[in-house]
């Protein structure tokens, strides 16, 4: 699992070795400015012209404008600006131009955001209308037919970056023609290059932006095609480069690299055929189905790029799946890379009517046409490995935290893991908790919410066919001089003291305050409970210790090298992997040869009590540094002075 398998090609791709060579040569031997008239400049100009000629052949664009840009986002701005300026011009002339901006519901955000921006900035006043897609992710041509006569500008992508769904461009062109639409038409072709045949001259498309980094060229270079006769307004003015269409000294290294990729496309032999890519996608799909029973694909494979699979696994979140794949060295994503850092559900899947629970579990796996047999074989083997890691039997934790949407629930187990009490179980996880308890053969002794209507106790009990609530009256213990209800859980009891539930060890029917280890519900007023940890439903961290002075929790970062040095200097220090069990099962975590002890974040509260009793330096580690930072902060706030984490996590630790 040491090597990385990059299966996120729709986000960006590695750079083709021939492209690196071409870029290096452009920077070393052919570094001239193509606008200079001396020999250096002329050589650069020749490279520029040859690359453009190549682009024309690959795009099937013998006529019209083909210019180099910094990428698709710039191409999109230019197209939008050109179209909106044309609308203003047509209006001035009194020509028919339509009053709607029609944008496909699943376009990359660069498109609707640019439309809104320029429409506002130019004061064009066009009405933005979203063209819906059907359940397969394809544009609703019936709706387009209604909008087209009033459309000034229509934007529909060639293939979707999240789902790989390929648009019916012929169908769209037909509707525009049949309705005699005055619309200009932009087709975002970013995901089509190298994966779909292109013959732009033969289409009605007015603007087609492309991006180099989606097909083995570096970031920062792209192309924009503008149909002959289509209105054009430059976005950037200055030195008049690109025949005045796009000023600014050309990015010659990027253009040379893009030229090498276009050359490989034109000459053949470098990239795999459509049929080969299809066969590989089918193998990956089969491996996914085998690894994750119940898996569903979120777009019909028949209408998708042969290099993209978007799927969901019932009962698992995208984040959990991504963490699992990442642990196995497989880099996939939850949707578009631009929104990966935000926890928002996918607007693309929403637009397709995919249910929210499925979209919350969506993962995109994408590869490029440079893949080979060995790569696909490795990918299938790793996918199966991930499936097996999920199936690894979970060791019984004494106390497990369940998190959903900022709320925490708690599962309390006896030592053998045969009996369990659920407190404030999140409703969203009810199905999953029930399945998990069933798989362990674990009996639910009680299931309740600490405040009425707050958790999902009713939902969990309904699935399991048991009665919700606190089953009072069966047993009692004496606590603070009063007889209170209790449930035995292995050798412990959970006792109900008003709004608080106390977990601890009772002796001869007495629960002494010092014997209480965890408190759920309202924080206790009894000062004698100061040593206990309070487990909350809401709050970050979800565990507190009323009796301890919280320590500052800002200074917790150690970069990987400092963490390794710290561990070497503190032989009693513990390196703790806080990733969840499937990730640990996929690959054990280590830092510079030192193996970590595994305590998943969801089980940290149970373990924290012992670390506080017997303090030793702790260095937490996870995939990216987020969960380990939470763990270190939690321990500091509980009063542990030597809790640290590896900033950047395993991703930066190498
Ligand atoms: N359009 C689509 C379909 C994309 O996938 C992307 C990149 O994610 C873009 C536009 C933006 O491209 P660039 O990164 O070159 O600006």
Summing up helix and strand content along with how strands pair, one would put the structural category as alpha/beta
Question: Helix fraction?
Answer: 25-40%
Taken as a percent bin, the fraction of beta residues is 15-25%
Largest sheet: 7 strands, mixed
CATH superfamily of the largest domain: Type I PLP-dependent aspartate aminotransferase-like (Major domain)
- CATH architect. name of the largest domain: 3-Layer(aba) Sandwich
In the sheet with the most strands, the strands line up as 17-18-19-20-21-22-23
**How many separate domains?**
4
Contiguous uncertain segments of 5+ residues: none
Bound ligands, named by name, code or SMILES: pyridoxal-5'-phosphate
- Mean pLDDT reading: 93
What is the top-level CATH class of the largest domain? Answer: Alpha Beta
Count of distinct strands? 30
Radius of gyration: 30 Å
Number of helices: 19
Distance between the first and last residues' Cα: 12 Å
Shape descriptor reads elongated
Could you tell me the CATH topology label of the largest domain.
Aspartate Aminotransferase, domain 2
Could you describe the 3D structure shown?
It is a single chain. It contains 19 helices and 30 strands. The chain is of the alpha/beta class. The protein has four domains: 5-11 and 273-390, Aspartate Aminotransferase, domain 1 (Alpha-Beta Complex); 17-267, Aspartate Aminotransferase, domain 2 (3-Layer(aba) Sandwich); 399-544, Metallo-beta-lactamase, Chain A, CATH 3.60.15; 557-653, Rhodanese-like domain (Oxidized Rhodanese, domain 1, 3-Layer(aba) Sandwich), CATH 3.40.250. A seven-stranded mixed sheet has the order 17-18-19-20-21-22-23, with no helix packed on it. The chain has a five-stranded parallel sheet with strand order 24-30-29-25-28. A four-stranded parallel sheet has the order 4-3-5-6, with helices on both faces. Helix 2 crosses helix 7 and helix 13 (430-440) crosses helix 14. The longest helix has 22 residues, at 72-93. It is elongated, with a radius of gyration of 30 Å. The two termini are 12 Å apart.
């Amino acid at each position: 699992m040491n090597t990385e398998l990059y299966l996120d090609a729709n986000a960006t791709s590695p750079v083709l070795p021939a492209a690196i060579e071409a870029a290096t040569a452009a920077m070393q031997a052919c570094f001239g400015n193509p606008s200079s008239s001396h020999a250096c400049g002329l050589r650069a100009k020749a490279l520029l012209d040859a690359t453009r000629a190549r682009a024309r052949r690959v795009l099937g664009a013998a006529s019209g404008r083909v210019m180099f840009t910094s990428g698709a986002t710039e191409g999109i701005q230019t197209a939008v600006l050109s179209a909106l300026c044309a609308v203003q011009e047509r209006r001035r002339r009194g020509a028919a131009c339509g009053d709607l901006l029609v944008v496909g519901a699943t376009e990359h955000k660069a498109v609707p955001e640019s439309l809104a921006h320029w429409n506002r900035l130019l004061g064009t006043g066009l009405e933005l209308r979203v063209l819906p897609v059907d359940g397969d992710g394809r544009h609703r041509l019936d709706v387009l037919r209604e909008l087209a006569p009033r459309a000034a500008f229509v934007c529909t992508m060639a293939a979707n970056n999240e789902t790989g769904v390929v648009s019916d461009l012929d169908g769209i062109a037909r509707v525009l023609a049949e309705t005699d639409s005055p619309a200009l038409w932009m087709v975002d072709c970013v995901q089509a290059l190298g994966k779909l045949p292109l013959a732009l001259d033969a289409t009605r498309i007015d603007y087609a932006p492309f991006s180099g980094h989606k097909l083995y060229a570096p970031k920062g270079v792209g192309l924009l095609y503008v149909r002959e006769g289509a209105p054009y307004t430059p976005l950037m003015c200055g030195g008049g480069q690109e025949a005045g269409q796009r000023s600014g000294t050309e990015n010659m290294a990027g253009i040379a690299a893009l030229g090498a990729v276009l050359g490989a496309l034109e000459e053949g032999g470098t990239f795999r055929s459509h049929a080969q890519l299809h066969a590989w996608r089918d193998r990956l799909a089969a491996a996914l189905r085998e690894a994750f029973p119940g898996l569903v694909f979120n777009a019909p494979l028949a209408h998708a790029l042969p290099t993209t699979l978007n799927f969901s696994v019932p009962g698992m979140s995208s984040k959990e799946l991504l963490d699992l794949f990442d642990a196995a060295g497989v880099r996939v994503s939850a949707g578009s890379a631009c929104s990966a850092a935000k926890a928002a559900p996918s607007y693309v899947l929403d637009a397709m009517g995919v249910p929210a629970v499925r979209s919350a579990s969506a993962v995109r796996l994408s590869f490029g046409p440079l893949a080979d047999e060995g790569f696909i074989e490795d990918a299938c083997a790793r996918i199966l490995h991930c499936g097996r890691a999920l199936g690894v039997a979970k060791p019984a934790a004494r106390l497990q935290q369940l998190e959903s949407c900022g709320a925490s629930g708690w599962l309390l187990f006896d030592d053998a893991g045969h009996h369990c009490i659920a407190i404030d179980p999140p409703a969203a996880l009810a199905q999953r908790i029930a399945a998990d308890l069933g798989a362990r053969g674990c009996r639910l002794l009680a299931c309740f919410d600490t405040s009425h209507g707050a958790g999902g106790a009713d939902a969990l009990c309904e699935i399991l066919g048991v009665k919700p609530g606190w089953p009072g009256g069966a047993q009692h213990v004496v606590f603070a001089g009063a007889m209170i209800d209790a449930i035995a859980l292995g050798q412990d009891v959970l006792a109900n003291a008003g709004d608080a539930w106390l977990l601890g060890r009772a002796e001869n029917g007495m629960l002494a305050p010092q014997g209480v280890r965890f408190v759920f519900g309202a924080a206790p007023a009894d000062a004698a409970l100061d040593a206990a940890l309070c487990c909350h439903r809401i709050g970050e961290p979800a565990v507190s210790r009323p009796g301890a002075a919280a320590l500052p929790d800002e200074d917790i970062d150690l970069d990987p090298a400092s963490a390794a040095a710290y561990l070497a200097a503190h032989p009693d220090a513990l390196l703790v992997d806080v990733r969840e069990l499937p990730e640990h099962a996929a690959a054990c975590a280590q830092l510079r040869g030192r193996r970590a002890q595994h305590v998943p974040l969801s089980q940290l509260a149970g373990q924290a009590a012992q670390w506080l009793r017997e303090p030793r330096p702790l260095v937490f580690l996870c995939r990216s540094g987020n969960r380990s930072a939470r763990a270190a902060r939690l321990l500091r706030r509980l009063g542990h002075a030597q809790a640290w984490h590896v900033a950047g996590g395993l991703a930066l630790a190498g």
